[in-house]
């Protein structure tokens, strides 16, 4: 009864903040994982708290819930959430086939091997499709990586990274040209996508630390040096 009253008076985030190791909140945390899936939201702290509780009460572990936590963590890349969650999952559980698959997918993403990633994801759609927004999240991550490396991306490179081709890719490019500052150029026999400038694909934009030191600070240093 006390647990029900606590659930009524506090949000899940409140319960985690008050006592993340309280086993009475385990069911609330599991429900919260499913809410994150259905509402396409994400709360790493709550999910880590649940995985820690599973360590203390392994007999209560839900394999389905753990899988959903790991898929949501993959969707958060480039944040290191997947590794943080995996660290809390026992090795014998990691050896289950669906978790081995998720670990392989994580490795492909970390090493930017997108063709292998999408091939493996297609073979394991039954594992991933339970979490809405998965493909879009990975596409966002792929574009993020490309923007760190390329000033101009050949259309085939982009198509492979985000797993979109043909008319669907045309619409995708039109959308980002209108909303993300992309410029589509004709390059030889294919298109080239010019990505917005940033300090990674245009190093000259990186602010020099020396330039950010106010002049009055520099003048204070001279008497000390003399």
From TrEMBL:
A Gene Ontology term for the protein's cellular component: eukaryotic 43S preinitiation complex
Example GO biological process: formation of cytoplasmic translation initiation complex
Keyword Nucleus belongs to the record: no
Residue ranges constituting the PCI domain according to the UniProt record: 42-201
Subcellular location: Cytoplasm
GO terms of molecular function: ribosome binding; RNA binding; translation initiation factor activity
Presence of the UniProt keyword Cytoplasm in the record: yes
Any Pfam family: CSN8_PSD8_EIF3K
Alphabetized UniProt keyword annotations: Cytoplasm, Initiation factor, Protein biosynthesis
Protein family: Belongs to the eIF-3 subunit K family.
Subunit organization: Component of the eukaryotic translation initiation factor 3 (eIF-3) complex.
PANTHER family membership: EUKARYOTIC TRANSLATION INITIATION FACTOR 3 SUBUNIT 11, EUKARYOTIC TRANSLATION INITIATION FACTOR 3 SUBUNIT K
Functional summary from the UniProt entry: Component of the eukaryotic translation initiation factor 3 (eIF-3) complex, which is involved in protein synthesis of a specialized repertoire of mRNAs and, together with other initiation factors, stimulates binding of mRNA and methionyl-tRNAi to the 40S ribosome. The eIF-3 complex specifically targets and initiates translation of a subset of mRNAs involved in cell proliferation.
Protein name: Eukaryotic translation initiation factor 3 subunit K
The organism of origin for this protein: Digitaria exilis
Lineage: Eukaryota, Viridiplantae, Streptophyta, Embryophyta, Tracheophyta
């Amino acid at each position: 009864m006390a647990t029900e009253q606590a659930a009524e008076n506090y949000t899940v985030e409140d319960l985690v903040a008050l006592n993340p190791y309280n086993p009475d909140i385990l069911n609330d945390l599991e429900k919260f994982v499913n809410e994150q899936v259905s509402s396409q939201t994400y709360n790493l702290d709550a999910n880590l708290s649940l995985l820690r509780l599973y360590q203390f009460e392994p007999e209560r572990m839900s394999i389905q819930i753990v899988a959903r936590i790991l898929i949501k963590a993959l969707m958060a890349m480039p944040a290191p959430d997947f590794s943080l969650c995996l660290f809390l999952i026992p090795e014998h559980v990691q050896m289950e086939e669906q978790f081995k698959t998720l670990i392989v997918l994580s490795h492909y993403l970390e090493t930017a091997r997108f063709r292998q990633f999408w091939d493996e994801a297609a073979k394991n759609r039954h594992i991933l499709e339970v979490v809405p927004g998965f493909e879009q999240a990975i596409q966002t991550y792929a574009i993020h990586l490309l923007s760190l490396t390329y000033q101009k991306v050949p259309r085939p490179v982009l198509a492979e990274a985000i797993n979109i081709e043909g008319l669907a890719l045309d619409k995708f490019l039109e959308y980002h040209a209108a909303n993300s500052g992309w410029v589509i150029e004709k390059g030889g026999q294919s298109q080239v996508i010019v990505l917005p400038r940033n300090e990674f694909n245009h190093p000259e934009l990186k602010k020099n630390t020396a330039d950010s030191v106010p002049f009055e600070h520099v003048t204070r240093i001279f008497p000390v040096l003399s």
